[in-house]
Design a protein that fits this description.
Length: 437
């Protein structure tokens, strides 16, 4: 009998687990509040905001409760901030993938500026001024710059002197700064990396944004915090953001608020989990970096968080022979290592850049992930070693030069500074300035 319909497609492989196991202490607080039916008020209740003040004060930022807002996710806060600050949005290339969509949803022009060779998270200060000039030439009015002191795509932290130069340039141009500090507690070596908040340099011009899922909460608990300047302009901005949050009618669930308030107090179990996660992320991203550098890729050594950003431009010829000519194809080839193509981070889709993450090494289930957290050296675990070995083999099959000395590629070993005069491929395209995307 002739078939009239194609064979059904194979069921997709189950998605790997996300994040780390939920701390029993936080799960218990959530369960204890399960009977609460009332949601949090827009912007968060007084107990939640007061706990947030303590969280920031332990990081050197004095904060009264009337300068804080909470929302169901940092992206919701960013959307409300863009809505309150009318004008064009300036982003880095690359940047976290949730920075640009809220701006485009509101119809705000988006201009991207390349990051310097030393780190991601903020723009090159001279390229920033050039981007502002070009935006104004095209009739746009830049109003806000989003930067990160512990960058998501690259896993790097900008040096304080570089951050100071960017803050000065932004202040000169009258820009609001939104500082994403979600991953500042995930430093792989706190004694080796200094993280400063722009709010310490420009206290009247900076809104600090924190996605608590990065370090404090399970990834399935979307909670974001915003800290506003203690000025009249800051109070007006906070009022406008609060009004937008109220109109969205998406408050924090009441039961979740109690667990979040407890986590913001950072009891011993929470602080210990954050420290362990930072240590494990450092070991795993270090292994990823060594595999990529050994294959000839360009990659800044990661210093924070669970990701790193690799440029496989040196492998363009062998990759092209396999039909891999852009970041989307590269993402598919490296999918087992939580790959996300550079096009998702405002980078050039034709560039061979990709973000890799530790999710592909942590383990296939939560029991295995807990074992990874408990290990004195996670790199000795069989599933981690197998994941790293498979990445090395995949890169070799794609044309990588396994065993090539790191210095030959211009990429420093893990923990070392990049060689002076790093490649433009590391800095990103269009080093002259950004354009509308």
């Amino acid at each position: 009998m002739q078939r009239t319909a194609p064979d059904p497609q194979r069921e997709p492989d189950p998605a790997p687990p996300a994040g780390l196991p939920v701390l029993p202490e936080l799960a218990a607080h959530l369960a204890a509040a399960a009977g609460r039916t009332a949601p949090e008020p827009p912007g968060g209740s007084a107990p939640l905001r007061t706990a947030a003040c303590g969280y920031w004060e332990r990081r050197g930022l004095f904060t009264p409760p009337d300068r804080v807002l909470a929302a169901p996710g940092a992206a919701a806060l960013l959307l409300a901030l863009y809505a309150a600050v009318d004008g064009a949005v300036l982003l880095t290339r690359p940047c976290a993938e949730w920075y640009a969509p809220p701006a485009r949803l509101l119809g705000r022009p988006v201009h991207v500026t390349p990051v310097p060779a030393e780190s991601g998270g903020l723009p090159d200060p001279f390229a920033l001024l050039e981007t502002v000039r070009r935006a104004r030439m095209h009739g746009d009015t830049p109003r806000v710059l989003v930067l990160s002191v512990a960058d998501d795509p690259t896993g790097t932290c900008p040096p304080p002197e570089q951050l100071h130069e960017v803050c000065e340039a932004a202040a000169e141009e009258g820009l609001w700064l939104i500082s994403d500090e979600s991953r500042r507690d995930l430093l792989h070596d706190p004694h080796d990396t200094v993280v400063l908040s722009p709010a310490e340099m420009l206290p009247g011009e900076v809104v600090v944004l924190t996605d608590l899922r990065a370090a404090l909460l399970p990834v399935s608990w979307p909670v974001g915090l915003a800290r506003f300047p203690g000025t009249r302009r800051g109070a007006v901005l906070r009022g406008a953001v609060l009004q937008t949050l109220a109109r969205l009618h998406s408050p924090l669930p009441g039961p979740l608020a109690g667990a979040v308030t407890h986590a913001l107090g950072e009891p011993d179990a929470v602080r210990e989990r954050t420290a362990v996660a930072a240590r494990v992320y450092g070991a795993l991203t270090g292994a990823l970096h060594r595999a990529l550098a050994g294959a000839g890729a360009l990659c800044r050594p990661p210093h924070a968080g669970s990701h790193l950003y690799a440029d496989l431009e040196p492998l363009r010829r062998p990759l092209g022979d396999r039909g891999i000519v852009g970041s989307a194809a590269l993402e598919r080839e490296l999918a087992p290592w939580a790959a996300r193509g550079g096009h998702r981070f405002e980078d050039d889709p034709e560039a061979l850049r990709v973000r890799l993450g530790v999710d592909g090494l942590l383990g296939a289930d939560m029991a295995l992930r807990q074992r990874t957290l408990d290990a004195a050296d996670p790199l000795t675990l069989p599933h981690v070693r197998a994941g790293v070995r498979d990445l090395e083999r995949t890169l070799a099959a794609l044309g990588g030069a396994q065993g090539r000395p790191h210095r030959a590629t211009g990429v420093a070993r893990a923990g070392e500074a990049p060689a002076a005069g790093g490649s433009d491929a590391v800095r990103g395209p269009d080093a002259e300035g950004g354009e509308d995307r």
